[in-house]
# Entry
Amino acid sequence: MSDAKVIVSQEPWNKPLPNVDQDNAAFWEGLKRHKFLLWRCRTCGAAYWPKAYCLNHDNAPFAENMAWEEASGRGKLFAFNRHHAAFHPGFKNDIPYTYALIELEEGPLVSSTLVGDKQPKDVYDVGQNVEVVYEDHPAEGFTLPRFRIVD
Ligand SMILES: [Zn+2]
# Structure
């Protein structure tokens, strides 16, 4: 995606750190390159997040039939919750903020927070189109996937 939306945050990070492990390290590395990766089946094309064996058929040993591939970064607002209380002190300056479940074009559901001026207000806002925004944290060396409502 050449026109990827990027936010560069210089704010000191005082929230829990992303839970990067052996199974999702490639996903987090992709975010740093402003690519939204999904775990895809090379046999049938199904997309997964988080990493999983394909549910549609037998899999090759060690998931050799699966690979991380760049996805669209687009989806629809599946559900959301407007937070007016900080459940961790690090979120105190963010409230109110919108925690959302995004149904990606490729199928998987991911959770994130919404950025931008357009915020959902009620149940009729479910189903709106969203796209990923990469939030770089250069001091900490990670990038978070946020989403924004688009027309
Ligand atoms: Zn498959």
